[in-house]
Amino acid sequence: MTGIPISFAGTKMSPDEIEQHIIRAYLQLACTPEANGTRIVTVVRLGVLEARLTEVPEKQRLPGVPWFWLEIYSHASRSVIDSCGCTEFDEDELAQAVELITSARQQARGLH
After folding, report:
1. pLDDT in tens, 49-105
2. How big, in percent rounded to 5, are the helix, strand and coil portions of the chain?
């Protein structure tokens, strides 16, 4: 995984800051080497949780299914606990992604 993981579990982020981190992660995917055919970039770390942006490999893409997934990964359970799909990162998709990270940050606070 690449990117510049920044920890935000105990700090307050504005929706604009979260959106900027998502957009940066999206741009970083283009220069991220594939691992097992997948590209993954860490958007932010939230204590034991991590927001990751994953690109679906081209040969696994299906019509109507998003090519990008913002996932909330739990290091404690070693699993994805929530996610949302994105195709164009338009205003609605970015708002949904920001909400996912905001909710995960609140969840991470409860885990400390």
Report:
1. 999 999 988 888 899 999 999 999 999 999 999 999 999 889 999 999 999 999 998
2. 35, 30, 35
Q: What H or E segment, with its residue span, contains residue 52?
A: strand 49-55
Helical (H) or strand (E) element with 21? helix 15-29
- Distance (Å, rounded) from C-alpha 6 to C-alpha 55? 20
Tokens, residue 9:
């579990």
How distant, in Å, are the alpha carbons of 2, 4, 80 from that of 72? 16, 16, 6
DSSP collapsed to 3 states, 73-90: EECCCCEEEEEEEECCCC
Token couple for 45: 């770390």
pLDDT tens-digit map of 62-75: 999 999 999 999 99
